[in-house]
Specification:
The chain is mainly α. It has one domain: Mitochondrial carrier domain (Mitochondrial carrier fold, Alpha/alpha barrel). The N terminus is likely disordered. α6 crosses α8. It is built from twelve helices and no strands.
Length: about 325
């Protein structure tokens, strides 16, 4: 199942110059409707790379920290379910284990992702035809995921080792992993992480952006916070379900440490299916869909609200009338 690609020529779908439309909408509304003659309202303004980069960093970091703090226990349960082999019991204590250390990585990783995604998306939307806007969103999402993975993978390794009770604190985890496994231990499961997160990031953001475009065409206005939240939840839940098998593989490879039970991605899949059955590849799908669905709702609503606040602050102030 791929992301929905909306072939939207918004200039032809909303005609603003006809007498009928002028009669239907007052002058104040005509100005706002003209913003839908392009895919993004940002298209009407000169592209300022540094401003978009900065706003993306701040908005992404804020959204990432809020989501991670609110939903960390669900993520911990999901990780423990996926790491448990057949017959193993799940313990329910310490559901916030590793949160502080994880936030230290989530903040810059989320900031880098959105900081790369936003300017890349806006630049590509100017280059690609409007009926290929989905390609711009897919490409920007994959690029943002690739760059941020350099921060996200070590963060994920430390977090999941702590969630499964291997270490008591993030500094101890980093020190002991590097001592016993070398620096490459912090990047355990890196290939599986990219295999999961590049398509995940690309598909999730593409679904979200395309649904927003379609909604804005129909509603002929900008979305409010609840609408952004619902669309974000839907995009997150669908993408989370699709990529669950990849997430199981990533978890197993990251938490195995020196055990070396799995020798790469293919061996990991074959071993899981042989020893635990194909259903094991869907372990934790319930908490994962719940976590990412709620997380998508929070992340995208916080992201859009923060971007809006930052954009309002960057507007030149009008002089007060005497």
């Amino acid at each position: 199942m791929g992301p929905p690609a909306l072939a939207t020529d918004m200039r032809s779908s909303i005609v603003l110059s006809s007498d009928a439309n002028c009669a239907r909408f007052p002058d104040s509304e005509l100005k706002s409707l003209k913003s839908f003659a392009s895919i993004s309202m940002e298209d009407e303004k000169p592209f300022n790379f540094l401003r978009v980069l900065f706003e993306g960093f701040v908005a992404g970091g804020t959204a990432g920290v809020v989501v991670e703090t609110a939903l960390y226990p669900i993520d911990t349960i999901k990780t423990r379910l996926q790491a448990a082999h057949g017959g193993s019991k799940i313990h329910w204590k310490g559901l916030y284990s590793g949160l502080a250390g994880n936030l230290a990585g989530v903040l810059p990783a989320s900031a880098v992702f959105v900081g790369i995604y936003e300017p890349t998306k806006q630049k590509l939307l100017k280059v690609f035809p409007e009926n290929l806007s989905a390609v711009a969103h897919l490409t920007a999402g994959a690029l943002g995921g690739a760059v941020s993975s350099l921060i996200r993978v070590p963060t994920e390794v430390v977090k999941q080792r702590m969630q499964t009770g291997q270490f008591a604190s993030a500094p101890d985890a980093v020190r002991l992993i590097v001592t016993k496994e070398g620096f490459k231990g912090l990047y355990a499961g890196y290939k599986s992480f990219l295999l999961r997160d590049l398509p995940f990031d690309a598909i999730q953001f593409c679904i979200y952006e395309q649904l927003r475009i379609g909604y804005r065409i129909v509603a002929q206005r900008e979305l409010n916070d609840p609408e952004n939240a619902v669309i974000g939840a839907f995009a997150g839940a669908i993408t989370g379900a699709i990529t669950t098998p990849l997430d199981v593989m990533k978890t197993r490879l990251m938490v195995q440490g020196l055990a070396n039970q799995y020798n790469g991605l293919i061996d990991c899949v074959q071993t899981i299916v042989r020893e635990e059955g194909p259903a094991a590849l869907l372990k934790g799908i319930g908490p994962r869909v719940l976590w990412i669905g709620i997380g998508g709702s929070i992340f995208f609503s916080v992201l859009e609200r923060t971007k809006l606040l930052l954009a309002d602050r960057s507007k030149p102030k009008r002089p007060k009338e005497q």
